[in-house]
Write a structure and sequence with these properties.
The complex is a heterotrimer. Chain B is mainly alpha-helical. Chain B contains three helices and three strands, in the order ααβαββ. Chain B has a domain at 11-48: Histone, subunit A (Orthogonal Bundle). In chain B, a hairpin with a 2-residue loop joins strand 2 and strand 3. Chain B is flat. The mean pLDDT of chain B is 89. Chain C folds into two domains: 3-261 and 263-294 and 382-470, Alpha-Beta Complex (Amidase signature (AS) enzymes); 302-373, no CATH class. An eleven-stranded mixed beta sheet of chain C has the order 1-3-2-4-6-5-10-11-9-7-8, with helices on both faces. In chain C, helix 9 (300-315) crosses helix 11 (347-360). The radius of gyration of chain C is 21 Å and the shape is globular. Chain C starts with a helix and ends in an 18-residue tail after the last helix. Classes of the chains: A alpha+beta, B mainly alpha, C alpha/beta. At the B-C interface, helix 1, helix 2 and strand 3 of B face helix 9, helix 10, helix 11, helix 12 and helix 13 of C. The structure holds magnesium ion (MG) and zinc ion (ZN).
Chain lengths: 481, 104, 488
């Protein structure tokens, strides 16, 4: 693959651990709200604060979402057990994390990122999130801070940790894997997929091996990959670092490394030698979990269509137009959940290319609003553009209004904005006025200098405050030569 | 798979375990706890040496499964009450001294 | 006499005021507790308010509940909203929970009046109540002796008639053994019959809450109140509380009682005699009594001292100085955790945390914790075999009567042996209770233990009532405050 070619003679091998916060109303083991951005320490109770005497009770909805994830990833969903992972950390109220250890709820699945080889899923398990620590003093990072402040609102939020097999061989494939996984999680309602808010977090296990070798090299785990871009850059950097180290006779040490976005480097995270012995044992406060076949079948039957199926459906609707040029747009449309709008428009006769483009670009800019937009209004608007009632820029302006919550039909909105195909007399007057005001440019244009047409069109657009249709302006100018 | 019966606990084991458990011990305490833990583990060697390879472990006396609660929000605690119990608070959050052991 | 039920009957009938009953008991506490040190906290303000509510309810013609106006003492490991809960540990000194344990709410709803929090071995780890950060409780029958533990404060409070009822927790015998040593009834119910929500955990798979009372019937009434399903505890059974008061008088005619060899061997001669006398009494009352061997009980103690510390090491990790309780100052968070825990926990707690950490640590898990879990299976199987032939089993509760304060403090292993007869029921999750059977040569009470299979409380209480009926008289301890030594 192109991006591993840089490692001449070596190959990178990557496994990814993706933690996703689940879209439940409450936390994993208590009834506190699972809510991002609340005032610190307001969504806390005896259970998620680890107060003495409190006990966990498992959230049914979290289990249901974990089952959905298992089904969506073609994994087997079976009996599982919650263990305690014991270690001290101030963001962990009980100083142990309730997680699944040797019996995860989902195991042995796979995911096929579009355009890349299939990646095995080793396991996906339920566990609780930790609180949020802010480091005060110094430069706000953990190192050099004077003290830290802990907010336990996030403590106990349900997570599913999805562990891939080391089946990833390039940063491109890694990005495509996470992107596809994210789209799946959004599609099935398991996650909002917001990496910037931390609701999807990725750790990468990176190792390198000589081309053709059969055993894996020593791996490093990279944390703090909170965007696809960081993920790609960090993997490439880390593989390069390991190759350079090995080429110069060094050895890779198994360790956890932190990705620094601003320096573009990874750095070792543990300065002190810490004995890691998590002393896992079955949590005696919880009982075994076994969703059983009925539950899994019910989830399977009610499963929302997955992105791969939806992409296929959209490609079929687009038909012959579904060239590779718009494959990317189709992927975006599906990922953002806007394929319903597009298929509605296409089935009403709107040009496929236009529908895909408006959804993938303008609607995508306000995806949340677009998902809740009435498809009928979207279709109406695109028909107005298709039939040249509105220019492209006018259509975009009306769409922006609709997405911002404007009431009324697209016609009404366009009228309110003073948009719509311009009366030909008004356009003629505007053309004449521009020609008169810029005689030099007009003469050059008449003399065949086509470079000046942009200037003239721009002047007309300006004098009509953008209401003129660019195509009509060009036609009018040409007709006056 | 049952491992061999381990030797009784050493001084170093006690020091290691104390660190895992976030306890600091004086030298005399290390001596005393090594002796006490050794006594208990020696007593427990009757159990450690039993051949129970075919016996399923019991983690819990009850055969319960799938105890679940509905996903319904219940009121959280009053923040002032929660923070009043804390040894140190700053900016409505729990304050702890600096966290070493990681640099990034 | 059924002190608690008599009080409730009189209060419900409007013959006595809950407030009067409370003041009598507060007076007794004031007079005697300086010498005994049963209480860590006397919550008189809340108690008076609750008693007044009960009295007002009676006046209004409402029924305040089956335990109306009955003063009850709670071991200090039950979370009580607004009342300090410390587990007799320095690390929780002064901590006031923002919530009530499920059992506390149930007692209140039944009309009981919580008078205070009782002393215990720190975090319920011990068999003598000497491992309390606040000093020991003394046995009301001989203040130079221990009351047993870890619920020693609750047992001694009931024995000394400072409260007719108390709750304790029993992880390896912590209700039954002090009940035996203090001459009161103490019950460990089936695991999961009573919600653990709000009970500060020691060993979660073994802990169970139960009552102390001066009679089997009072204990039965209390268990009826606190038992039953609780959505806040995943390990609590989906089951209504059993009807126990109704069955205690049904007698033991035709019941099959197994005299369990392993639960008598090693007991002192007078304790053994007491158990045999109780067995004879049951036979006279129409039960079929035979000897039985439950061999796996022999390994119970070893398994217990691997499982309980392992769970405890994890349950007690949260006392780290961050969110509540003690914090010792230090420059970084790990040093703060370490300084806090080292200063906040006593020796016995540290010993068990380290033992449990070791039993779970890499390389030792299978040989210790895993092996102990397998022994647990053997104990369950051995009991299952015995209960194929018997309705209940009979044994000693404690190997001997109350020992001298300080006698076993230097040798943890000797102390642990106090629980050798009580531990198997905890490992199995089965119910068991201690019923007084007279006194030994030294005038100290002896307890007889009745064991039953899971959810076998009805049979257990019937047998316990028959033993109580036949038992030699046991006078309440004489407490003359000026004559008993002060000191903690
Ligand atoms: Mg994890
Ligand atoms: Zn909570």
């Amino acid at each position: 693959m192109a991006d591993s070619g840089m490692l001449s003679g070596w190959e990178m091998v990557v496994g990814l651990e993706v933690h996703t916060e689940l879209l439940t109303a409450t936390k994993l083991f208590c009834g506190c709200a699972n809510e991002f951005g609340a005032e610190p320490n307001t969504n806390v109770c005896p259970v998620c604060l680890g107060l003495p005497g409190s006990l966990p009770v498992l959230n049914q909805a979290a289990v249901d979402l974990a089952v959905r994830i298992g089904v969506a990833l073609h994994a087997s969903v079976g009996p599982s057990l919650f263990h305690r992972k014991n270690y001290f950390y101030p963001d962990m109220p009980k100083d142990y994390q309730i997680s699944q250890y040797d019996e995860p709820i989902c195991s042995n699945g796979w995911l096929e990122p579009p355009g890349h080889p299939r990646v095995g899923i080793v396991r996906a398990h339920l566990e609780e999130d930790t609180g949020k620590t802010s480091h005060m003093g110094g430069d706000g990072r953990i190192h050099g801070a004077e003290r830290s402040l802990v907010d336990y609102n996030r403590a106990g939020v349900p997570l599913v940790e999805i562990v891939s097999a080391p089946d990833i061989w390039s940063s491109g494939q890694a990005r495509a894997y996470v992107s596809e996984l994210r789209a799946i999680l959004i599609a099935i309602g398991a996650s909002d997929g917001r990496m910037e808010e931390g609701s999807l977090r990725v750790d990468a296990n990176v190792s390198v091996m000589r081309k053709g070798a059969t055993s894996l090299g020593t791996r490093c785990e990279i944390k703090n990959l909170n965007s696809l871009r960081s993920l790609g850059r960090a993997i490439d950097y880390e593989a390069r670092r390991q190759v350079d180290l090995l080429n110069s006779g060094g050895v890779v040490e198994q360790e956890t490394r932190h990705w620094n976005e601003s320096t573009g480097r990874t750095a070792s995270m543990r300065s002190k030698e810490e004995a890691f012995d998590y002393r896992y044992f079955p949590d005696p406060d919880l009982v075994p979990l076994d969703p059983g076949e009925d539950w899994v079948d019910r989830v399977r039957l009610n499963m929302a269509p997955l992105p791969a199926d939806r992409r296929a459906a959209l490609e079929a609707a687009v038909g012959e137009d579904a060239s590779s040029a718009i494959a990317g747009q189709i992927a975006t449309v599906v990922e953002l959940g806007l394929d319903g709008l597009v298929t509605a428009a296409i089935s009403e006769g709107v040009k496929a290319r236009l529908a895909v483009a408006r959804a993938a670009n303008e609607a995508a800019a306000a995806a949340d609003a677009a998902r809740s937009l009435d498809a009928g209004r979207f279709v109406q608007l695109l028909k107005m553009e298709d039939s040249a009632q509105l220019s492209a820029s006018q259509t975009k302006a009306v769409l922006a209004e609709l997405l911002a919550g404007a009431e009324g039909s697209p016609e009404e909105v366009a009228a309110r904005l003073g948009l719509g195909s311009m009366d030909s007399a008004v356009l003629d007057a505007a053309l004449d006025a521009v020609i008169q005001a810029h005689p030099e440019e007009w003469e050059r244009f008449r003399g065949g200098d086509n470079k000046v047409i942009g200037f003239l069109v721009g002047q007309v657009m300006r004098s009509t405050q953008g209401k003129a249709d660019g195509k009509a302006v060009r036609a009018g100018l040409a007709s006056r030569i | 798979m049952i491992g061999p019966v381990p030797d009784a606990i050493s001084r170093d084991d006690v020091i290691h375990v104390a660190r895992l458990a976030r306890l600091s011990l004086t030298d005399q305490e290390v001596d005393r706890f090594t002796r006490h833990l050794g006594d208990i583990l020696t007593h427990a060697s009757d159990v450690a040496s039993l051949d129970l390879a075919g016996v399923t472990p019991t983690a819990h006396p009850l055969p319960l499964v799938n105890v679940l609660r509905p996903d319904v929000v219940v009121p959280s605690l009053d923040r002032q009450e929660v923070l009043a119990a804390a040894p140190a608070v700053e900016d409505e959050r729990f304050m702890v001294p600096r966290i070493l052991g990681e640099q990034a | 006499m059924n002190q608690a039920l008599e009080i409730a009957k009189a209060v419900r009938a409007g013959e006595r005021l809950a407030s009067e009953v409370l003041e009598e008991h507060l007076d007794r506490i004031a007079a005697a507790d300086g010498a005994l040190h049963c209480f860590l906290e006397v919550s008189q303000d809340q108690a008076r308010a609750q008693a007044a509510r009960i009295d007002a309810a009676v006046v209004a013609g409402e029924d305040p509940g089956p335990l109306a106006g009955v003063p009850v003492a709670l071991k200090d490991n039950f979370c009580t909203k607004g009342v300090p809960t410390t587990c007799a540990s320095r690390i929780l000194r002064g901590w006031v929970p923002p919530y009530d344990a499920t059992v506390v709410g149930r007692l209140r709803a039944a009309g009981a009046v919580m008078v205070g929090k009782t002393n215990m071995d720190e975090f319920a780890m011990g068999s003598s109540t000497e491992h309390s950060a606040e000093g020991p409780t003394r046995n009301p029958y001989d203040t130079d002796r221990v009351p047993g533990g870890s619920s020693g404060g609750s047992a001694a409070a009931v024995a000394a008639r400072l409260a007719p009822l108390a709750l304790g927790s029993d992880t390896g015998g912590s209700i039954r053994q002090p009940a035996a040593l203090c001459g009161v009834v103490g019950v460990k119910p089936t695991y999961g019959l009573v919600s653990r929500y709000g009970l500060v955990a020691f060993a979660s798979s073994l802990d169970q809450i139960g009552p102390f009372a001066t009679s089997v019937r009072d204990a039965a009434a209390t268990l009826e109140v606190i038992a039953g399903a609780d959505p806040a505890d995943s390990t609590c059974l989906e089951r209504q509380a059993p009807s126990l008061v109704a069955v205690v008088d049904q007698g033991v005619q035709g019941m099959r009682v197994g005299l369990a060899k392993e639960l008598i061997d090693g007991a002192s001669p007078e304790v053994r005699k007491a158990v045999e006398a109780a067995a004879d009494a049951l036979a006279s009352a129409g039960a079929v009594v035979e000897e039985v061997s439950v061999e796996a009980c022999r390994w119970g103690l070893s398994a217990y001292y691997l499982i309980a510390p392992a769970e405890a090491s994890s349950n007690l990790a949260r006392y780290d100085g961050v969110r509540y309780g003690l914090r010792m100052p230090a420059a970084d968070v790990e040093a703060m955790n370490t300084a806090t825990r080292s200063a906040g926990f006593g020796d016995e707690v540290k010993r068990r945390i380290m033992l449990g950490t070791f039993a779970l640590s890499a390389g030792y898990y299978d040989a210790y914790y895993g092996q102990a879990q397998r022994v647990r299976t053997l104990v369950l199987e051995a009991f299952a075999a015995a209960y194929g032939s018997f309705d209940v089993l009979l044994g000693a509760t404690a190997p001997a009567t109350a020992f001298q304060l300080g006698a076993k403090m230097a040798d943890p292993m000797q102390m642990y042996l106090s629980d050798v007869f009580t531990i198997p029921s905890n490992l199995a999750g089965h119910p068991a209770m201690s019923v007084p059977w007279g006194v030994g040569a030294d005038g100290l009470p002896i307890g007889v233990q009745v064991l039953a299979p899971a959810l076998g409380e009805e049979a257990m209480f019937r047998v316990a009532a028959a033993i109580e009926e036949a038992s030699p008289p046991l006078a309440a301890p004489e407490l003359v405050p000026s004559e008993v030594p002060h000191g903690r």
